[in-house]
Amino acid sequence: MDLPVVTTSQKDLDIKDIKTLPFNIGGRRKKENIQRGGDAEAPAAPTTPATTSMSAPKEGLPDAVKLIIGAGGIYGAFLYYGSLQEDVFRYIAEDGSSFKQAWFLQVLEAFANVVIGFVGMKLMGETKGIPLKMFGISGASQVSAKACTSLALANGLSFPVATLAKSGKMAPVMAGSLLLGGASYTGREYLQVAAIIGGTAIVSMGKKKGGSTSNSALGVAYIVGSLVLDGVTAGFQKRLKVETAKAGVKPKPYDFMFWTNLFMCLTAGVIALGLGEFTTGLAFTASNPEILSKIIKFALCSAIGQSFIFYTIANFDPLILSTVTTTRKIFSVLLSIFLKGHSLSPTGWSGIALACGGILSEMQAKMSGKSKQHSH
Q1: What pLDDT does residue 92 have?
Q2: Residue by residue, what is the 3-state secondary structure of 315-326?
Q3: Whole-number Å distance between alpha carbons of 334 and 118
């Protein structure tokens, strides 16, 4: 859900605010954009437009095939990721207990990304002199946002509501910029955020009686906390951009994947130990092998999805990645409703339409803005 911002952080790991950073891949210089972690979704991921010389012949696969591979991999990995995440937190053991160890889950997810990131980093070549302090702060912020999303699900917030709410991550970013940075936004941007938040609220109140999941006040509080941390993460990523520029280094994609997830894993590990979640989490999974297999597949989907994100980053404009991840959120919501037994009233469906309209409007605004830039 939080991509993992990939983050944000969703943890499904979802694109958050795109900030540029330089890096080298395949011997060519590109610009890198950091994706805030979620929803699956995913931790800070670099994004870059793939620029080639007009006169240079294209090598390798055609762009259409590359897009099918990249987008198909992102859709496949993160749609399944979201489904597994919902299954984990809706699982009820024979004794009536459920899985609540969100920090333990984040340790396992981040560890899978560390392994894949380490392999990729060694294959692509490791960048020396990276400012690890800011990676540590950014990683801690991102994993906290993802854990809050998981805790929201563990405390009764339905997956469709959580996913739609995380799509309104621009709200805390806008609020912080207005209060601290003196930024200004267009009327359309305010309406987009209002549509996403309003639609999400309508969905949460529009479930039919007898629906399978109730949206608890604690679950709502956790998802709000996750959104606030999304905004904090954006600020840390801006500083990370400055620090890497000062250090004169150009981290590669798998450098970001490895170091960000390493600090996410360490942060989650310390908190899980402090809360005793390693003991209770291991005990629960040992008693319920079915949920253990779901958790393992959930972590693998996160790592595989991140790899497809990096593949798409390396070959296409950031807007392509933004479009893929944005539409993926909508499909995740619809699949959850149709496959997981969520029952919505007509009012609830109107909320879905309103929130999705806000999401698509935001995407269209990015596309039109990019077109204007190219036309100048």
Answers
A1: 92
A2: HCCHHHHHHHHH
A3: 34
Name the nearest CA neighbour of 1 among 144, 100, 146: 146
Q: What is the mean pLDDT of residues 87-110?
A: 94
Contact criterion met (CB below 8 Å) for 117 and 257: yes
What's the rounded Cα separation, in Å, for the pair 111 and 119?
Answer: 13
Mean pLDDT of 348-365: 82
| Inter-residue contact 261 to 117 (CB < 8 Å) | yes
pLDDT category at 288 given cuts 50, 70, 90 is very high
The two tokens of residue 111 are: 């560890």
Distance separating alpha carbons of residues 374 and 317, to the nearest angstrom: 12
Q: What predicted TM-score, i.e. pTM, was given to this entire model?
A: 0.74
How many Å apart are CA 373 and CA 376, to the nearest integer?
Answer: 6
Is the pLDDT assigned to residue 328 strictly greater than 90? Answer: no
Contact of 32 with 251, CB cutoff 8 Å:
yes
Listed residue (156, 144, 147, 159) closest to 87, CA to CA: 159
Look at residue 179 in the predicted model and tell me its pLDDT: 66
* 184 alpha carbon, distance to own chain's centre: 26
Q: How confident is the model at residue 1 (pLDDT cuts 50, 70, 90)?
A: low
* Contact yes or no for 99/155 (Cβ under 8 A): no
Q: Distance of alpha carbon 222 from its chain centroid, rounded?
A: 16
What is the average pLDDT score of the chain?
Answer: 78
Contact 20, 33 (CB under 8 A): yes
Of 221, 274, 262, 228, which is closest to residue 103 (Cα–Cα)?
274
Nearest to 16 by CA among 29, 3, 28: 3
pLDDT of residue 182: 62
Tokens coding 236:
């840390």
Residue pLDDT, tens place only, 228-269: 888 788 778 778 888 888 888 888 888 889 999 999 999 999
Secondary structure class of 363 (helix, strand, coil): helix
Residue in 145, 148, 186, 168 with CA at minimum distance from that of residue 329: 168
Structure tokens at 213: 């999941």
Which of 166, 140, 157 has the alpha carbon at shortest distance from 39?
Answer: 166
Cα first-last separation, the chain: 36
For the chain, count helices (H), then strands (E): 12, 3
